Amino acid sequence: MRSIRVFLVASILAALTLFNFVAALQGYKSSLHEAEKLFDDQLLHTAKLIAKLPLDQDTDSLNHLSNFEYQVWHNNQLVSASSNTKNTIITDLFPGFGDANFNGYRWRTLVYYDPKNENWVIAAERSDLRFALAENVVIKAVLPIVLGIPMIGLLIWLIVSRGLKPLNDLSQQLKDKQVHDLTPIETPALKRELEQVVHSINALIGRVGGALEREKRFTTDAAHELRTPISALKIQLHNLRDELAVDSEPFLQLQSGVDRMQHLVEQLLSLYRSSPSEFSNLFNRINLYMLAQDVIADQHDVFENKHQNLSLEGTDCFILGDSFTLSTLLQNLLSNANKYTPEGGNVLVSIEETDSQVCLKVEDSGPGIAPEDYNKVFERFQRLSNNPEVAAVQGCGLGLTIVSHIAELHHANISISASRFDSGTAFTVLFNKAFKTDAQPMQTDVN
Amino acid sequence: MFLNSVVLILQEILEAALLISVLLAFTRLRDVGHRWIVAAIIIGCLGAFLYALNMAQISEWFDYVGQEVTNAFIQLSIMLLLSIFAARHLGRPDHQPSQGHNREFILCMLFIVSLALTREVSEIFIYIGGAITDPSNVQPTLIGAGIGAGIGISAGVLIYYSLLGLPSKWIALTGLLLLSLVAGNMASQATLLLTQADWLPYSRILWDSSELLPENSVLGHLLYALIGYEATPSLYQGLGYVIGMLLILIGTKFTVWLNNAAPKS
User: Fold this and answer.
1) d(CA B39, CA B32)
2) CATH number of A4-148: 3.40.50, 3.30.450, 3.40.390, 3.40.1350?
3) What is the pLDDT of residues B208-263, one digit of tens each?
4) How far apart are CA B76 and CA A347, in angstroms?
5) Which sequence spans correspond to the domains of chain A?
6) Confidence of residue A279 (pLDDT cuts 50, 70, 90)
7) By the CB < 8 Å criterion, does B136 face chain A?
8) Distance between CA atoms of A24 and A391, rounded to whole angstroms?
9) B93–chain A Cβ distance below 8 A for any pair
10) Is residue B66 domain-resident?
11) In 3-state terms, what secondary structure has residue B40?
């Protein structure tokens, strides 16, 4: 079953309907039987009454009844009868109830012998009218059962919904929980049936929180510990190069390897430096355009070395955020664009604002990313190596994870699409705007 | 009139409810969504309306046995469709079906339910349409129809959830057995209709259980609707029933055998 509510309502209502309707049918049959007995009793009383009447008594009043006929026989002679039965005997003169056909109908008959006057009274009622009358009465009793089913269904729906409310509330509470919120679930009036569920979830949250904390501490400590020896190693390499004046391929590869290791350690540190607990909520009002100008100026040489055209366009746009992490975000996006854009390619940074958002976009003219890989690029240590150009680029696969992490800390939304160039990728980060500005758009060519 | 309405509508609805609940359980097993049933009910009811509307003309076909022959043709079509459905889709419960396979699965069920509803609901339309021409019959007929439909639908819902309550393997097995009973019932009814139309000769009575379980008893009516119980079935009816059941069971078994015999990639 997909929905507990639908299952409960449908199965309870089905069971109730089934048993109610079968009971109604049983009631119908019993009631009809009782009605038959009642009509028979009434017929007997009428027959006795006719038997007591003097034979010359006027019985015109009985002739008006369309569903009733009678005959009185004495010594095999018809001595009295209703108007429609004056010619033939209705049924044989055997005492008791029976059925007979005459005048085009089926009749319920009673033969009654009056020993005092030695008269045989035959009383008859039309069976179809008796049945219709009885059925009419019984159906009026059955009708509320049929009409009541939709009301019962509605009532069951409301009761089941009320009963499932604590479960829905718990579900909503879990749904509303932020990704990094590892605080236990608190429900003021916990239902007994849900106690174990909530306790288990809270225990699980506790274990996950502990594991995450240990993982974070391990990575941060390891990165910290590695930083110093790597720095020492770099100095030693530098000194060695000066002393021995070596510039061989193995030496250059060694230097490149150490650089890559240092980069990895720095990225790991910045990933955890920007975790929510350390980050706090003390955001400043930041001009994203100015910040982008500063970052681009810092990275200018890197782009210059590859003869890439780096442009910035946009307006002064203000957001609430942390300048250090936002710089890291843009540095990583630019570093990414620089790495994957071929020499002489284009990289464009644009900053625009809409009514409620500020859009930071970094576009390049690199080989681009296949749409089916968009979701993978933010995963840790994920490098899309299908493309030989991409595979040749050195990196640790953490840069875009950090970008995504920082965007998340700023409640920003990050997405990937094709760039405006013939090929390449566009990374778009949508921030919530701090407040409106009236700055005019401007275009700055940095390179 | 009331009791007649209950019995007739209950029989028709229960037959359809059994078929629909089993197919819905298979739908849940395959996890292909339940939307097809809405389409099948709409198509089936529209078909039933048109069929009932033109029943006077249809009855005149084939020397005034058109209704019997057409109904028999519908019953046999349902039985054949059920056999194809079982052979193609129920023989390989562990098989991961493709999208095209799932589409065929849904279309097959849509056809089966639409055809079944066309026949069953048309009977209801014809009965109610005839009964309520006398104003005094309107109330008992409609209340009886409501009770009959209520019991039939409720039984269908309970069968569906009971099937879903079973372990997956048993759902498939029980569902298959129920489908084979439905197919046997269809074939038996078709044989009876063709005998009534003089398209098949009368054959000897296989047994007479009217003393033990009369057809007009409550249980008799229920069993007739569910498994096509007859107190005095003819030889051809019995044969039809067995062939209908075997077509489902052997067809499924044959697919399993084919699947096992196929070289593994």
Assistant:
1) 14
2) 3.30.450
3) 998 999 888 878 888 888 888 889 999 999 999 999 999 988 888 777 777 666 65
4) 71
5) 4-148, 192-272, 283-445
6) low
7) yes
8) 77
9) no
10) yes
11) helix
Other residues' Cβ atoms within 10 Å of the Cβ of residue B165:
11
How do residues B167-190 score in pLDDT, each as one tens digit?
888 888 899 999 999 999 999 999
Q: Rounded CA gap, A271 and A406, in Å?
A: 8
**CA dihedral over A57, A60, A63, A68, signed as positive or negative:** negative
Chain B 4-43, CB below 8 Å of chain A: which residues? 6
Topology (CATH) of A283-445: Heat Shock Protein 90 (3.30.565)
How confident is the model over B95-105, as a mean pLDDT? 77
Does A246 score more than 80 pLDDT? no
Q: Let me know if A352 is exposed, middle or buried by CB neighbors in 10 A (0-12, 13-18, 19+).
A: middle
CATH 3.40.50.720, domain A192-272, yes or no = no
Read off the CATH number of the domain in which B155 is found. 1.20.1250
Over 80: is that where the pLDDT of A147 sits? yes
Q: What is the ipTM of this complex?
A: 0.86
Whole-number Å distance between alpha carbons of A441 and A314 = 5
Contacts of A374 (CB under 8 A, 6+ apart): A416
Is the pLDDT at B33 greater than 70? The verdict is yes
C-alpha A117/C-alpha A262 separation (Å) is 130
Tokens of A386: 């299908």
CA distance A359 to A380: 24
Residue showing tokens 């709409």:
B42
Beta-strand relationship, A318-321 and A284-287:
antiparallel
Of A33, A44, A38, A34, nearest to A95 by C-alpha is A44
In A126-165, the residues whose Cβ lies within 8 Å of chain B are 132, 135, 139, 142-143, 146, 149
B16, part of any domain: yes
Residues 6+ apart with CB under 8 A from A428: A359, A360, A361, A414, A415, A416, A417
Which of A7, A13, A139 is facing B139, going by the closest CB pair? A139
**Cα–Cα distance, B191 to B197 (Å, whole number):** 10
Q: How far is CA B6 from CA A135, A421, B3, B96, B144, in A?
A: 14, 73, 5, 44, 5
CA–CA separation, B219 vs B216, rounded Å?
8
Q: What is the pLDDT of residues A158-201, one digit of tens each?
A: 999 999 998 888 888 888 887 667 888 887 777 888 888 889 99
- Residues 6+ positions from A175 with CB-CB distance below 8 Å: none
Nearest to A262 by CA among A161, A107, A394, A142: A394
Selected residue with higher pLDDT from A23 and B258: A23
Residue B101 maps to a domain: yes
Q: What is the DSSP code (8-state) at residue B159?
A: H
Does residue A395 have a pLDDT over 80? Answer: no
Torsion angle (degrees, nearest 10) of CA A72, A73, A77, A78: 20
Structure tokens at A444: 């700055």
Give the DSSP H/E element, type plus range, for residue A350: strand A346-353
Closest CA of chain B from A302, distance in Å: 50
Cβ contact B144:B9 at 8 Å? yes
Is residue B264 in some structural domain? no
| Nearest-CB residue to A146 (from B3, B136, B146) | B146
Question: Is B155 near chain A, with CB under 8 Å?
Answer: yes
Q: State which residues form the domain around B17.
A: 2-259
Size of interface A-B (CB pairs under 8 A): 54
pLDDT in tens, A422-439: 888 999 999 988 765 444
